[in-house]
Fold this sequence. Notes:
In chain A, 29% of the residues lie in helices and 31% in strands. Chain A has 9 helices and 12 strands. Chain A binds chain B through residues 2, 4, 6, 8, 10-18, 38-41, 60, 192, 218, 220-222, 226-228, 259-264, 266-267, 269-277, and chain B through 2, 4, 6, 8, 10-18, 38-41, 60, 192, 218, 220-222, 226-228, 259-264, 266-267, 269-277.
Amino acid sequence: MSLTYNEFYNERTGLTVGVNNVLFSEQTPYQKVEVYETDTWGNMMTIDGMVMLSEKDEFVYHEMLTHVGMFTHPHPERVLIIGGGDGGTAREVMRHSSVKKVDMVEIDEAVVRASKEFLPGVGDWDNPKLNVLFEDGIQFVKDIDEPYDVIIIDGSDPVGPAEGLFENEFIQACYDGLTEEGLLTAQTESPWVPEYHPSMEKVFSALDDIYEKSAMYLAYIPLYPAGMWSFSFASKGADPQSDATFERIEVGLNAFDKSMKYYNASVHMGCFALPNFVRDIIE
Amino acid sequence: MSLTYNEFYNERTGLTVGVNNVLFSEQTPYQKVEVYETDTWGNMMTIDGMVMLSEKDEFVYHEMLTHVGMFTHPHPERVLIIGGGDGGTAREVMRHSSVKKVDMVEIDEAVVRASKEFLPGVGDWDNPKLNVLFEDGIQFVKDIDEPYDVIIIDGSDPVGPAEGLFENEFIQACYDGLTEEGLLTAQTESPWVPEYHPSMEKVFSALDDIYEKSAMYLAYIPLYPAGMWSFSFASKGADPQSDATFERIEVGLNAFDKSMKYYNASVHMGCFALPNFVRDIIE
């Protein structure tokens, strides 16, 4: 028997991954969650037939979704993660010593359950700073009482339960739920997939309208469509490309217990350089 | 009938592209050259089962292989391309008004023949500045009489006829064939493919030893393994990241007849920011 996982992002073009074994497969009330043992990427989770992460490449997504914002904030203490059920984003957030509390709001408990069992190195589940809530993140953000320094939108693609994460109303609610120095980062799809362009344009336009500063940045993620992934940054004023931010990263990274595998100060500054065809999507 | 092109870069992990038609397939004395009509990428050329380019994504590779070096040189007049049989690199080189002559040394005439017929928008074959030679590029470089301002190594992967392009002797011969202000760029494989790491390390170490300045840079290429591709820059002193280079790009791009699709001054500066795991390969 020879199984392959195939994910097409444009007609019959896409990714093939050799699969040794299907470890988890569950149709939850929200989506289909699966974990495969792969030939070269360790265990790999998919949701509704889209790769979320593998053990071997998850460091890129989690470091880049997290640290670009966390190092831009001068002293992030309270952090909210919407989605993020595999635990990797919370793990990276909690490496920052300034952090006192992380609320992680994941709608689907099956994602956390599957991750704890089959992606055990991804989450830092026993960390006392972590508070996991199985709730609707969109409603949660509307009801925020005590604002957050950083909000991270770590949802799946804009189909199914994550669709509302790309709506203006939600983006405004995040703004209202941030402190005065607050900022937000979000995953915002692959610029190589034409089908996603309307979502990217819509989100970016909303961030640009609502926030004082906004910018798109990129990272190389081998198991995501075409290997190029976009993220969005938005803040009430904090500048991710200032000299002060660069200095903070260089000093801050020295305090980390183990080095990053992807993120560094140069990558932070360079990832905001957008190829012309990407600029054209959001401008 | 439903054909797919499958290229695995690591066990059974890799790329799938929907194929409508096989347009060209020839075993030449050097390699197997094929052109497919694909579902979403236009026509696509492969050599020995590795994607070289498609009509829809070739702009990334050709702009990034070419302009990073061409804009770092203050006034490139004589340019040598080793390989480059599809014609895209020469096309981008000749967009620079300073260029007087381009020698393109391609070992395999079938690549040029297939490209002219099935990738007709890629090459600028009738440009009087272009001189195409069907010869061994390694021997050609050894025999250089009149030195070049820029040498561009546009070979295929380090198996088959392109293997010698990754050897110290060739890299030294390029140095000897450059003018005093001369510089070189080369494609140097995907950092996500462990099999290529020894070649990357070897080439980069040779460039570092032989040239006054050297640096690796990256671009997002959707049809290449894992979507991340590395290039190398080396010079007798010219600095691709100086303020003067940045200024030259900003001014220079205004003179181009049509805008770039990928390359701009920010991308030029940002592409040298290497993720930690890439740095680790070459250091």
